[in-house]
Amino acid sequence: MQAYSRFFAGLAGRPTIQTRHGKQSMWLTRELFSFEPIKDETGKVTHHLLHLGTKKHPLGCLAFTAHRDYLPPASIHLSIHAGRWHVSFNYDDGIAEPSAEETTQWLCSFSAAELSSVTLGLDRGVQIPLAASASDRQNFDFRAIEKKRLTRQEKHKKRWQRRQARRMQGSRRWKKAKQRVAQCQQYAANLRRDFCHQTSHALVADPAYKLYVLEALKVKNMTTSAKGDTEKPGKNVQQKAGLNRAILASGWGQIKVYTQYKALRAGKLCIEVPAHYSSQECSHCGFTHPDNRRSQAAFVCQSCHYTDNADTNAAKVLVKRGVALMLGEGVAKKKVKRARIKQQKVGAECSKPAGAT
Ligand SMILES: [Zn+2]
Asked: What is the number of other CB atoms lying within 10 angstroms of the CB of residue 6?
């Protein structure tokens, strides 16, 4: 119902039927589940049981370890992805957090110099997923062991993909190979998501900064294929595909989303500024020229001879743009479009006079 009303309101595509093999999820309301803590002889809670279904129609129970204290939620989402079951739920913890408007107003009361000192620019890149504008040049990147594990999983995945291709489609062995491919992909996705969570947490936990500035990247446009069409075939399709993979693997979108919600919770703000030529502009004098960037790493201004690391310089440019945006026109909040499910009144159609258009 919700999916269809969003579709009819023009906010989303037509809902599709989920296949048996892909990611599946289910939304359960309060009357369909209950929690039960399981205690050992000493009275210590060892794990929890989640009973699903009603008394009349029990569906079974799932055992889980609670990593933190919880309250019974109003509804839960149950999902299965790559052969693993997940239960997710949320509830109001009662801790008041300032709204985005309040935080924006508070930050706008700062002077330009004050605001610059509490602003952190974050340059997202392919070589280094995230470079900060701080003086200690803090860069966020995957650890060496993580990179090693990612390449190993990638190798595993390719091997199982080849095996899957050789096996008879739909057979038991084919399904097994498919499952292994999904598991490898899941591992890489989990590792990247963990990196994004840890990075955004580290950023927001730093008490020195109140405003975080990212460049607005259109990831979807940036990762279109270079394939072209039959009349105009593209060039360097393989290289572009590799770059696209690298862009998507750096988790640009996730870092933004996580930083935004974590910042709001902490009474801080994360904004986006236009990204044009941020890598070629001098953060010292504002001179913009392609020659400023001689190599991937070094930035040398052709006008004032200011030198810096290229990513750090770009992050500093973002700080300038962010401060100007906050104190200038301000950050316009995009209005969220929502579809509302309207209850149809019985007989509403009939009450119209006949023949009226
Ligand atoms: Zn300069």
From this structure: 17
Domains identified in the chain, total number: 2
Per-residue confidence (pLDDT) for residue 188, from 0 to 100:
92
Highest mean pLDDT among 136-140, 184-188, 229-233: 184-188
Cβ-contact 64, 50 below 8 angstroms: yes
> Model confidence over 1-48: pLDDT tens digits?
878 888 998 888 898 887 777 778 888 888 889 888 888 888 888 888
Flag whether pLDDT at 275 surpasses 80.
yes
Are 270 and 300 spatial neighbours (Cβ–Cβ below 8 Å)?
no
* 246 and 110 within one domain: yes
Q: In what order do the strands lie in the sheet with 130-132?
A: 139-140, 130-132, 119-124, 211-215, 269-273
Does 248 reside within a domain?
A: yes
- Residue span of the structural domain in which 311 resides: 100-139+202-327
Helix (H) or strand (E) run with residue 75 in it: strand 75-81
How far apart CA 113 and CA 128 sit, in angstroms, is: 29
Mean pLDDT of the chain: 83
Ligand 1 centroid to Cα of residue 277, in Å, is 14
Residues 108 and 227 in one domain: yes
By C-alpha distance, which of 130, 122, 102, 179 is closest to 318? 122
Query: What's the whole-model pTM score?
Result: 0.78
User: What protein residues have CB closer than 5 angstroms to ion ligand 1?
Assistant: 282, 284-285, 287, 301, 303-304, 306
Pair 197, 189: CB distance under 8 Å: no
Q: What spacing in Å lies between the alpha carbon of 134 and ligand 1's midpoint? A: 18
**Could you tell me if 252 and 277 are in contact, meaning their C-beta atoms sit under 8 angstroms apart?**
no
pLDDT at residue 155 in the model: 95
Does residue 266 lie in a domain region? yes
